[in-house]
Amino acid sequence: MKGIITPIILIIVSIAVFLTYTDPAYNKIKIAEKDEVQYDEALNKSRELQIIRDSLLSKYNTFSSADIEKLEKLLPDNVDNVRLILEIDNTASKYGMNLRDVSVSGGTETAGKNIVEATAKDFYTITLSFSVSSSYANFVKFIEDLENKLRIVDVSRIAFKASDSDFNEYRVSVETYWVE
């Protein structure tokens, strides 16, 4: 009987060791192997992204600083209402006009908190409205000059009040864009 007890005890001990140590360790190794595969995939993606980043950076470095400044002016990365108003005022002053009744809007809350409204995922728009008085010929030149400015400005609305002389009152709304 004693010859049978030793193998039974050894079998019970080996089952206990298997259940308490070997099986949990084996499961941890399986999980670690899955994690290793995920980390390898992430590392490969990271290398691909580094190659793309380096490629884009080398393309970016081929642009001159003047071209980069033009791009930033064309589609700025922030909304600068004051600078936009000054640019339009300087353009208007070339034609003997002064901006009046300037207002900025773009969102549902225009009380200074949220004047910018998202129109797409990557860019935003604001609307600037102002009044000017001028002859029709000067106003047309002014609008053409606005169209030829580097910053994207879309004239969205023009209203006017004609007078007997060739000096009319114009109310203009323009939209401009910026990226985040």
Topology:
Elements: H1 2-62, H2 65-74, H3 81-93, E1 100-105, E2 117-118, E3 123-134, H4 136-147, E4 153-161, E5 168-179
Antiparallel strand pairs: 1-3, 2-3, 3-5, 4-5
Describe this structure in words.
- The chain is an alpha+beta fold and 180 residues long.
- The chain has two domains: 1-62; 75-179, Ribosomal protein S6/Translation elongation factor EF1B (Alpha-Beta Plaits), CATH 3.30.70.
- The chain has helices at residues 2-62, 65-74, 81-93, 136-147; strands at residues 100-105, 117-118, 123-134, 153-161, 168-179.
- The model is unreliable at 107-115 (pLDDT under 50).
Q: Report the end-to-end length measured between terminal Cα atoms.
A: 84 Å
Shape: rod-shaped
Low-confidence stretches: 107-115
Order of helices and strands: HHHEEEHEE
Mean pLDDT: 81
Give the beta-strand count: 5
**Largest pleated sheet:** 5 strands, antiparallel
Please supply descriptive tags for the structure shown above.
180 residues; alpha+beta; Alpha-Beta Plaits; five-stranded antiparallel β-sheet; rod-shaped
Summarize the structure.
This protein is α+β, with helices and mostly antiparallel strands and 180 residues long. The chain has helices at residues 2-62, 65-74, 81-93, 136-147, and strands at residues 100-105, 117-118, 123-134, 153-161, 168-179.
